[in-house]
Amino acid sequence: MSEREKSDERKINIEQAKDISELDAVDEMELINELFQAKSRSLDMPIPNELNDYIQKGLAKGIKVGKTRRLRKWSTLVACCLLAVFITVVRVSPVVAAVLHQIPGLGYIVELINYDKGLQSSVKNDFIQPIGVSDEHENVVFTVDGIIMDESSLVIFYTVENKRGHGKVDFSEVQLLDEVGEPVRDVSISSYSSESPDKGGDGKVQSQFNVNFDDHTVIPNRLFLKVKLGENGKLPEIIKPSEEIQDNHPALPTQLSSTWEVTIPMDKNKFAGMKTVYEVN
Amino acid sequence: MNTQTIVSAIRGDAEAFNELMNLHKKQLYRIAVRYLKSEQDALEAIQETTFRAYRSVNKLKEPEYFQTWLIRILINTCNDELKHLRVQTPLSGEANPKKSIVFDDSLVPGGSADLQRLDILSALDYLELKYRQVIELKYFEDLTIREIAIILERPEGTIKTWLNQSYRQLREHLRERGDSRV
Question: Which of B29, B107, B120 sits opposite A35 (nearest CB)?
Answer without folding.
Answer: B120
